[in-house]
Amino acid sequence: MSEQPPDPNQTESPAEPLYTHPASPFVRTEAPEPVSMHALPSTPSTWNTYRTQIEFGLAMLAYLMVLVGSITVLQSNPDASWRYVVAVLPLAPAALVLVIFIRALGRLDELQKRIQMQAFGFSLGATALLTFGYGFLEGVGMPHVSWTFVLPIMAILWGVGTAIFALRYR
Amino acid sequence: MKNRLRVLRAELNWSQAELAERLGVSRQTVNAIETGKYDPSLPLAFSLARTFKRRIEEIFESEESRRPVIG
Lengths: 170, 71
Description:
By secondary structure, chain A is mainly alpha-helical.
């Protein structure tokens, strides 16, 4: 392609681009710089929190539904041969809760894991103290309390332990 | 263990939450490291060093290292 000098007889000025005039509504925009995402982790911790809560909530809902269903069926068929299978059916969604819980523990960061370890230790030991203490009292005449209370006590003490040990790192 | 995390973070105008997201840890953990209540693991210390483009020794200072070493 040969370069030709511009025609001197050309009277028309070259068409001005739309965006050069100050009153023009067309604003020249530069392409935005690409945002580097490599520094960010693939799963932000906030999403992990919500994800765990949603998964846990759904699994607990499934557990409650199966539990209520199981109890209803057993009440209307108390002598059926399959009653043992139906009675342990709620364990299936409960096992799912356990899997979600263990996975959520694995997603915690190193300080959170340490806090949870201390809280679990506290909960285990304090529950042992409480249950043994009450066991001794039962031996001398206090009313018998069902062993199903052990897990709720442990869960409450775990929550208390988490609050105490989290405060230490504040 | 003493550290210069708060200063380095302020230089870049990052919030604790922002730094936490970059490191893939919770804001609570960043705060605990800054206040010296928690010493990070070696992998997390290296992540911090990479994030701030400094050596680990430029961020953390061991309390013992200021004592004279008697050999």
